Amino acid sequence: MVFAHLERLFDQPPLQQESAFGLRKLIDSTNESVRALENLNHPETRRRLELSLTDKRVPTFERLIELLEQQSIALDTMSPSKGRGKPVNDPQKLKNLFRIDKGNKPVGNARVHAAAVGGKTGSPTHQCNSTTNQSQVLLATAVVEVKDNHGSLQTCRVLLDTGSQASLITASGANKLGLKRKEVHCQVTGIAASGVATANSMVSIQISSRVETEFTLTINALVLQKVTGDLPTFTCNPSGWKHLSGLRLADPLYYKTQAVDALLGADVLPEILRSNIIRGPKTAPTAQETALGWIVYGPTTTTTESKAVAHFGQFDLNSTLQRFWELEDVSSCRRFTAEEKSCEGHYESTHTRNPDGSYTVRLPFKETAEQVLGKSYESALRRFKQLERRLASNSGLKERYVAFMQDYFSMGHMELVPEEDLEIAP
């Protein structure tokens, strides 16, 4: 009976996919087996369990169950139900739904805090979907002119973010500008201090305003593959925002989803921001004057389907360990080619050791005609005929050539081909 319960306890199938239902099933099955063993009150089993414990402190079973239950509740809360959910179309039921499009962001010599907001980054995400009137948040963007390596001005779209400790630029943006990179090693972290990326280089960029022509600003920006996704993450209609009429906007197309080339952090924003602010209705964003023009940001409403995404970096421990062992593993024995095997056999059969400890080995001359000469017959014949034509047109050169070859023959440096070999095909 004991072994039956133990077999059921330890032979539970592993979870193929993390889910609240799977964890709850695992917890229930484990508890049933453990309680059954406790009810048996088997003294031998209890004694063996006590003897199997070491001096090291290990988590208790109750702690394990508590951890699994907490994970199950978290998954049940965060993961959308599959096959059971129904779309919520009643506006009254959607009043409490809200969206967050914000995070905290980083910089420093060793560690930087940053948040990527909206769009696709390839990192794990949590997102909310909606097709009703929801409060959305516009993030402040601006279009600036940046000087490239040739001194020409290139247009770039930037995100102004007071939550970032450093300024960032995408690798594609740095390549487009042809900027010289300085090697650094800085970890960029985001929400809950989760690892997002590592910046291996930094560039110095000079920004000019399209509005205040005399304004220029030189900043140092860390280079990342991607700074954030396309912004904004939703489509809005600015036609009803009368308080923005007549303003020289830093980003005239702030309401259209577009790529972002760089991020200006709190390290440079004090030099850009101005004090003038224009507020509209509660459902409209706010405008603030800057050296780059008027930026538009803040909550608004939209009736189109949108996504609010919170990004966090998560490193796969299994793949990291696998990569570590692959790098540290001794490479497997490489198979020799036929030529390498022949060289090894030649060495073993011809080498000798001299009294002074040195080795002597016969030179590995190639044996067949093709190995010695290669496939050079056609080339040699073509060059011979070319020489014959040249000698026929120059009698003096021909006489000297014949005399030299005769002298070469008489000295024994060459000999006639035997008649029996004349018919052998080359």
> Strand portion, in percent?
15-25%
The biggest beta sheet, please? Answer: 6 strands, mixed, barrel
Radius of gyration based on Cα positions: 39 Å
Structural class determined from secondary elements? alpha+beta
The percent of residues in helical segments reads: 25-40%
CATH architecture of the largest domain: Beta Barrel
Question: Average pLDDT, to the nearest integer?
Answer: 76
CATH fold naming of the largest domain = Cathepsin D, subunit A, domain 1
Kindly report the spatial arrangement of strands forming the biggest sheet: 4-5-10-6-9-8
End-to-end CA span: 87 Å
CATH superfamily of the largest domain: Acid Proteases
Number of strands: 16
Keywords:
6-stranded mixed barrel; single chain; 23% strand; Cathepsin D, subunit A, domain 1
How are the SSEs ordered, and which strands pair?
Blueprint: H1 2-10, H2 20-40, H3 43-52, H4 61-78, E1 111-113, E2 125-130, E3 134-138, E4 141-147, E5 153-160, E6 167-170, H5 171-177, E7 182-189, E8 195-208, E9 216-224, E10 262-264, E11 273-278, E12 286-290, E13 293-302, E14 306-311, H6 317-328, H7 338-350, E15 352-353, E16 359-360, H8 369-373, H9 377-392, H10 395-410, H11 419-422
Parallel strand pairs: 1-7, 5-10, 6-9
Antiparallel strand pairs: 2-14, 3-13, 4-5, 4-8, 6-10, 7-8, 8-9, 11-12, 12-13, 15-16
Helix pairs in contact: 1-2, 2-4
